[in-house]
Amino acid sequence: MMTTGKTIVLLFLVFIILGSLSIYRHKNIPANTFRSELWVDKAGYYVYLPSTILYHFQTEKFPEKIDSLEGNGFSLSSGKVVTKYTYGVALLELPFFICADFLTTLFDYPKDGFSLLYRKVINIAAAFYLTLGLYLLFLSLKVHYNYNFLTLFITLLILFFGTNLYYYGIMDTGMSHVYSFFLFSSILYLVTHKGKYNNKYTYNIFLSLLIWFIILIRPTNIIFALIPFIWSATSLREIVLNIRCLISVKILIIWVLTFFVIFTPQFIYWKYAFGHYFVYSYMNEGFSNFLSPRFAELLFSPNNGLLPYSLIFIGIFCSFFLLFNKNSISIFYQLFTFLLICYLTTSWHERGFGCGAGMRNMVEYYSLFAFPLCFFINKVCSIKIKSFRFSMYLCIGLLVLISFKVNYHYYGCYFEDTWNWTQYINTLTYPVKLI
Questions:
Q1: What is the pTM of this model?
Q2: Is 75 helix (H, G, I), strand (E, B) or coil?
């Protein structure tokens, strides 16, 4: 077992490696383009920081035409800073923004909130939360399964390199997904280590803050809010008992207070930008395909489909099958969550959720699906027939390699037909150069 000092050193090294890799991958990417740290959605999440700290929401002080230069992820045309996105991602980016703001003065860069250093620290922020998210997930897996270090470590490596978590942790660093992945991993850590919290009020303060925060970032994340009640339950009676733990005046007060702590800044912003304390800021966007879901495209299409970018889900599906007869409600919850996320995604007015490497709104849920993946990896490692075990290793390695190459070389929207594989296959022919 590693000491605390060795753990900190290892985490720091991982953080440095991931941060350096992210900065390297962005070194030749010009600002104001699809692959840059601030573009459309990414700028929409981020704009709260310069608006609050540098410009005090005075649009005339912003750099000229900066909203259009950043892909119109936010708007300044009405005399107000208007973004449909919530402030959650910006809050997590805040410490890194402050560092960039200090460094711009030190190195004589423009202190405008959008110059080089402000962009580059977004890569550092993503690497930081990715590192923490993976570590907290490691600790949760260790408690839940008590497998050996190598099995847990291989699981995390496969999760990172074999899914589009790589892309959203290293390339699209300004998107919300890697930050939500960290928050989801934090909730799982709390739930799996609940026994360490002798004070139930402290536990509920942390838990409620995290749950309200993930809902703030993406309301559909409310699905994940069920985790504390069902995770270790083996019957409906245990779920009821878990819920009853919340039925006390003091704990309900905690949840109400933390709700207002998290959401009050957003309510104030909505009142400023839209004239109401509570609005649906996505306007005409919504779940307009409830009655016409297209699951085949969602799962298999080269245009933002799940499996072409995260082939290791084949192993996760196998785990669902193997675990189905286990007397654990959490297994049914994981399967239910997967199906519900798929249904909500394909019901959205734009099935692909815009440009993205694979099914991007599944990324944060990888913290949950790491558990069946870990079970699958352990099963493979336990195969007694050496030739069969070796064949499985090769298959897993091939799935990871294909997924990694596709995510590594993803260069933008696939505008071809939904089932046109030409651009997808082309990405597999490019050589991977990590340095």
A1: 0.93
A2: strand
